[in-house]
Design brief:
eight-stranded mixed β-sheet; two-stranded antiparallel sheet; transferase; EC 2.3.1.46; 35% helix; alpha/beta; single chain; acyltransferase; cytoplasm
């Protein structure tokens, strides 16, 4: 961190309760719900400097700073959000929200269903990116924000930024779509299904109602996370970090952990199963599968984008094979065909899909440059 960059410091989550029913894409209705969120920086008098950060599959509202001084790690995008950082909280009012169906404070499967007095579990309805955007729009209303200076997200968060610009065109001035895709390929849907099957077939899952049984489908969550984590990394990145290193320096001729990469993946799986909810994982991967903003426009993303009035920044990473640069170029091509202003950056990186969370210098510089221009618009 440079001398001009600082942390947002100690932050406190807030809860917004909504008692107006929300009808979901599935037809299900949430009669009332809570969204947990955090804010950083100060909303200006014109309420024109607000930025929404949309999280990815395993993300949440805690984007930057720490909840208490002893917290081990800061928010998941602390490298990008804070005073003097690309998303500069000296200039912007930044909002991070935990999406519906989440497991970090917003209403989700582990929340108590008022109709039964028990956790929703499998009764919690499937949610889509469109549902999240509508819920986020209600939060914006609550905060008095008519228009976002920018909506920003990576991966599944980028899909939300894109959907925002289509569903609420007058409320988004800039959309930053990072390491994302216009819709999932068959391969990506397949990865998600294998991950879900690991959870669904865990004997401790109990058809999604494991809370009442006092169990956690830990094995399924571990396997789902291990599979997902492989797809978030690049072959070169894994090779550089782990190669074929053996923990003991020699073959053991068995099936226990021998290679360092095996140890790393199991560690990641164990850590994830301690902090994430299995039902939420199922919901998030389904939201990914269903995302297709062109679907209701005769299958055309170009037609969908004709609704938009935002300016766009799209970024991809050369080693990302989960959402490859080709998928970002599809988005850019559709934007150009729809005659929308777009800046595109293809960043050299060895970090794979996870690169959107990293601090590769060209990536940080591109974000800073684009957001400097957004800040100048706000100040004008």
């Amino acid at each position: 961190m440079s001398q001009s960059e600082q942390s947002v410091g100690i932050v406190t989550p807030e809860d917004a309760f909504f008692d107006t029913p929300l009808t979901l894409n599935s037809g299900a209705v949430l009669e009332h719900y809570t969204l947990r969120f955090e804010t950083y920086g100060t909303l200006n008098a014109a309420k024109s400097n607000a930025i929404l950060i949309c999280h990815a599959l395993s993300g949440h509202h805690h984007v930057a700073g720490r909840h208490h001084p002893d917290e081990k790690a800061p928010g998941w995008w602390d490298s990008m959000v804070g005073p003097g950082k690309p998303i500069d909280t000296n200039r912007f009012f930044v909002v991070g929200v935990n999406n519906l169906g989440g497991c970090h404070g917003s209403t989700g499967p582990s929340s108590v269903n008022p109709a039964t007095g028990q956790p929703y579990g499998s009764a919690f309805p499937v949610v889509t990116v469109c549902d999240w955007v509508r819920a986020q729009a209600r939060l914006a209303d609550r905060l008095g924000i008519d228009t976002w200076a920018a909506v920003i997200g990576g991966s599944l968060g980028g899909m939300q930024a894109l959907q925002w610009s289509i569903d609420f065109p007058s409320r988004v001035r800039h959309a930053l779509v990072i390491a994302s895709a216009p819709k999932l390929t068959a391969q990506n849907i397949a990865f998600n299904d294998v991950a879900r099957q690991a959870i669904l077939t865990d004997p401790q899952f109990h058809n999604g109602n494991f809370y009442q049984e006092g169990t956690i489908p830990r094995r399924g969550l571990r396997l789902a996370r291990m599979l997902g984590h492989i797809t978030y990394l690049s072959d070169d990145g894994m090779g550089e970090k782990f190669g074929r290193m053996l923990r003991s320096g020699e073959y053991k001729y068995g099936f226990d952990v021998e290679f360092e990469i095996e140890s790393y993946l199991r560690y990641q799986g164990d850590k994830f199963s301690d902090r994430f909810d299995a039902n939420t994982y199922l919901l998030m991967t389904k939201a990914l599968d269903y995302f297709d903003p062109g679907q209701r426009f005769d299958g055309s993303l170009v037609k969908a984008l004709q609704q938009a009035t935002a300016k766009y920044f799209v970024a991809s990473f050369t080693s990302d094979w989960r959402f490859s640069p080709e998928r970002s170029r599809e988005i850019v091509k559709a934007m150009l065909s729809a005659k929308k202003p777009v800046c595109y950056a293809e960043i050299d990186s060895t970090h794979g899909h996870d690169a959107f969370l990293m601090t590769d210098a060209p990536y940080v510089a591109a974000m800073r440059a684009y957001l400097n221009n957004v800040a100048k618009e706000v100040a004008a």
